[in-house]
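Researcher: Predict the fold of biotin carboxylase.
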Amino acid sequence: MIESLLIANRGEIARRIIRTAKRLGIRAIAVHSEVDADLPFVTEADEAVCVGPANPAQSYRNVEAILAAAKSTGAQAIHPGYGFLSENAEFARTVESSGLIWVGPGADAIAAMGDKINARNLMAAAGVPVAPGTTEPAADLDAAVAAAAEIGYPVMVKAAAGGGGMGMGVATDEAALRTEYDKVRSFAERMFGDGSVLIERYFPRVRHVEVQILGLADGRVVALGERECSVQRRNQKLVEESPSPAVSPELRERLLAAGVRAGEAVGYRNAGTVECLLVPREPDAKGDAAEEFFFLEMNTRLQVEHPVTELVYGLDLVEEQLRVASGLAPTFDPDALTPRGHAIELRINAEDPKRFLPGPGAVTTWTEPVGEGVRVDSGYVAGNTVTPFYDSLMAKLIVDGRDRAEALERARAAVAAFEIAGPKCNLPFFAELLENPEFLSGDYDTAIVSRMR
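Model: Structure tokens for biotin carboxylase follow.
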């Protein structure tokens, strides 16, 4: 097993990784920016190094500073968490060429999945369903118009190098496409340094369902169930649950098999997520309605929502990541995976609960809920400050129960007991959602938040 680990991240995910590292007797090393010096992940680490000022480009994305911290502290491995450098293939290569262990998939797999068009083509070749779309970038507006005419409107215009719900627009006709194409291309060039654009069929009513995969040290790829991620604002997730209330046993079998094929197609190792769109079909003459799914993208890292899978399967995915990186067998029998119960995660953000605009500030009150089936992965305590320099995520409230009904009941009680004062907070939104008939029915889609607003 790895003996010393540098966590190239911050906030709740850094704290989460440190917790597992300490349980396993691994020396945990934190890196932090100047404004994060007082956060819990810094004080809980065995050692901490300041890597620069608040600007992420000068700290958490500063490859030279992070590698220098690893060298000065004698770190054996680097865990990137999620965001920042976690899906940067060049960083992964640099870590390994520096003689360090990279806790994540290989750089080639990251690069292959980082380009949405290349990923689509690889998945199609592997027999994973993909939505109708372009097999190469739309080189200019005329090419985009021609592609959309062949695919059929409405279409989604996507940044090929994008991720995290960024760099996307919907066009219902050619006039809208002309506007969205220029908008997405400009955004992609500015944010990702790559203006390549993908045109793909857009489905007005869809669910967002993903498969957790784990590439083992012996080369096998296993699927650890699915997660429902359809409660979103601006294409970014707010709530996740497992198992998905929309997935039948037959559909689950197909989804998980596709997830495994996706991982095998790129020789995947470590934790990753295969994201899919689940599209309902109209009932046939017999009244039977089937559903089809399409590959959306692969996230080549640990997901924010990994705790719901941990609770349903009784695993510690960070530990499994460390074991794979160390060349060790998993803690579980891959041929005897047995999920149990139901888990729900709510992302507690420093944002307005109505318009979801960021609202950073000093934390004057922070009281976490406790009780059976309640878990909180947090990045802050009272006295800390949520700054405007990073993502607004403050904590993740995760609950589990014997079934969805019990998990929902525990979620309502936990939301009511969670007290945060200082920054703006979206807890009132979750109180509303957990009473919403559509959400409670389990029959909801990615537009549920817009219908609530």
